[in-house]
């Protein structure tokens, strides 16, 4: 898991003004660290306009991603915790956790998905994540969940 | 028909379909089934004959309406819903 998630790509953000800004904020760390092209942001926004917010999986969680051909350079994950939730559509869920996925193929990010699955089947862990005070706490939780 | 292959689908075939696949594998184990091949893919691969059973989220319901054997999940992260619907189809 450590090669899929770097501490520098974990961030805590107060809030965003809308879902478009949420995508910008959530994906930018992977642009800055060279794992996706800048267009990955626009591709996710375009996909959303076409298909709706397909990456909002449940209350609190958006798994932001587009396909590998839409600007992925190398597989990686970034995590953004929003102190103030955002909605991706009017009657949609409140989202506090943005997990941005850059997947280079359909299989090799399995461990990252395992971490997400382990965390989101446990309400206590979701609460711990969204209330975390430091990026290090969030990072440690993900690494631990991936290794279960 | 006996179910030997289950395909979980989402728009990109990368994110939620993989999560659902892991949950299906967990649920099958818990329900005591073995020897069923579970895969994940883009919904464009969900064609008759590609699998014996398809599992998709509610948002993609319209894309799989022509397939003979489908489970539609209201909440793709809900293990209870998945287990209930799987055991219904497999019994």
Short description:
The complex is a heterodimer of chains A (148) and B (91). In chain A, 39% of the residues lie in helices and 24% in strands. With 148 residues, chain A is an alpha/beta fold.
Keywords:
heterodimer, A: 148 residues, alpha/beta, 5 helices, 24% strand, globular, B: 91 residues, Rossmann fold, four-stranded parallel β-sheet, 2 helices
CATH architecture of chain A: 3-Layer(aba) Sandwich
**Main sheet specs of chain B:** 4 strands, parallel
The secondary-structure element order of chain B is: EHEEEH
CATH superfamily of chain B: Response regulator
Q: Note the overall shape of chain B.
A: globular
Output the CATH homologous superfamily of chain A.
Mannitol-specific EII, Chain A
- Biggest sheet strand order of chain B reads 2-1-3-4
Number of domains of chain A: 1
Radius of gyration of chain A: 14 Å
**What is the number of E strands of chain B?**
4
Low-confidence stretches of chain A: none
Strand order of the largest sheet of chain A: 1-4-5-3-2
**Please, what is the average pLDDT of chain A?**
94
Terminal residue distance of chain B: 11 Å
> Which two protein chains have the largest interface (Cβ within 8 Å of the partner's Cβ), and how many residues from each?
A-B, 24 and 19 residues
- Give the count of structural domains of chain B: 1
- Helix/strand-derived category of chain B reads alpha/beta
Helical content of chain A stands at 25-40%
Secondary-structure content class of chain A: alpha/beta
Characterization of the model:
The complex is a heterodimer of chains A (148) and B (91). Chain A has five helices and five strands. With 148 residues, chain A is α/β, with parallel strands linked by helices. In chain A, a hairpin with an 8-residue loop joins strand 4 and strand 5 (95-102). In chain A, helix 3 (110-120) packs across helix 5. The relative contact order of chain A is 0.21. Chain B is of the alpha/beta class and 91 residues long. Chain B has one domain (5-90): Rossmann fold (3-Layer(aba) Sandwich). Helices cover 31% and strands 23% of the residues of chain B. Chain B has two helices and four strands, in the order E-H-E-E-E-H. A four-stranded parallel β-sheet of chain B has the order 2-1-3-4, covered by helices on one side. In chain B, helix 1 links the parallel strand 1 and strand 2 (37-42). In chain B, helix 1 crosses helix 2. Chain B is globular. The chains are: A alpha/beta (148), B alpha/beta (91). The interface between A and B is medium-sized, with 24 and 19 residues.
């Amino acid at each position: 898991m450590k090669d899929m998630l770097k501490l520098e790509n974990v961030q805590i953000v107060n809030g965003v003004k809308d879902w478009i800004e949420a995508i910008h904020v959530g994906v930018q760390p992977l642009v800055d660290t060279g794992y996706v092209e800048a267009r990955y942001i626009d591709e996710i926004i375009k996909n959303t306009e076409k298909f709706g917010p397909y990456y909002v999986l449940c209350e609190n969680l958006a798994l932001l991603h587009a396909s590998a051909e839409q600007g992925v350079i190398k597989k990686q994950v970034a995590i953004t915790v929003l102190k103030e939730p955002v909605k991706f559509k009017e009657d949609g869920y409140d989202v506090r956790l943005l997990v941005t996925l850059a997947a280079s193929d359909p299989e090799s990010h399995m461990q990252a998905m395992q971490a997400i699955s382990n965390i989101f089947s446990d309400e206590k862990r979701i609460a711990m994540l969204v209330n975390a005070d430091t990026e290090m706490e969030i990072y440690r939780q993900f690494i631990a969940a991936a290794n279960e | 028909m006996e179910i030997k292959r289950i395909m979980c689908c989402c728009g990109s075939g990368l994110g939620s379909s993989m999560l659902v696949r892991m949950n299906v594998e967990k649920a099958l184990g818990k329900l005591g089934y073995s020897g069923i091949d579970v895969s994940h893919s883009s919904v464009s691969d969900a064609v008759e004959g590609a699998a014996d059973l398809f599992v998709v989220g509610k948002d993609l319901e319209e894309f799989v309406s022509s397939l003979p054997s489908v489970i539609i999940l209201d909440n793709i992260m809900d293990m209870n819903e998945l287990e209930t619907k799987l055991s219904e189809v497999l019994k």
